[in-house]
Amino acid sequence: MHPDAPEFHVEIVSPVALHAVRRRVLRGDDPAISVVDARDDDDTALHVAGLLGDRLVVTSSYYPSTSPVHPERVTYQLRYMATDFDVQGRGYGALVAAAAEDLLRQRGVEELWANGRDTALGFYRATGWQTVPGSEHLSPETQLPHTMIVKSLLDGAES
Fold first, then answer.
1. Which residues does 107 contact at the CB level (< 8 Å), separation at least 6?
2. 83 bridge partner residues
3. Which whole-number Å values give the CA distances from 126 to 1, 63, 68, in the listed order?
4. Across the strands, what pairs with 116?
5. In this structure, which of 42, 50, 90, 133 has its CB flanked by the most CB atoms within 10 Å?
6. Are 69 and 132 in contact (CB under 8 A)?
């Protein structure tokens, strides 16, 4: 890395800090489309970002939510995972996800679930997520193909 290049780091942030990247990457930069989750300001929500210097480039938000696959587990739903276009493929999203998973394990979370965009399933599989067979659907928000995905946070447990 060039000595003057900004350093990448992970931070817990307020949800509003994530809106610009959420909108740009996940909603086609359309100002008319909401990028707010009703649970954003809940005390139990977790918003983890990746920053390149002072520029926010990765977003992820986690909300307590009963797993459709393992309702008996303590689970959170991942939403709004996004990496800004010009820095995709550099591993930043995986670093943010790993940091968030560590924080959630500390809270006693056993499993994550999400509706992952089909175009991002390679990323999710590479970071330990599993697809739920037969869960393919079009997102009501975006009309894009999605598949339900799950990831166990328990040591040695299968999702």
1. 46
2. 58
3. 24, 22, 22
4. 147
5. 50
6. yes
Please state, in angstroms and rounded to a whole number, the distance separating the CA atoms of residues 80 and 49.
Answer: 11
pTM: 0.92
| Of the candidates 143, 40, 50, 31, the residue with the CA atom closest to the CA atom of residue 93 | 50
Spell out the domains of the chain, with CATH numbers in brackets: 8-152 (3.40.630.30)
Residue type, 39: R
SS3 95: helix
Q: Which two three-digit tokens encode residue 48?
A: 């983890």
Q: Which two tokens stand for residue 105?
A: 């394990």
Tens digit of each residue's pLDDT (9 = 90 or more) over 32-64: 989 999 999 999 999 999 999 999 999 999 999
119 in Cβ contact with 56 (< 8 Å): no
Report CA 118 to chain centroid distance, whole Å: 14
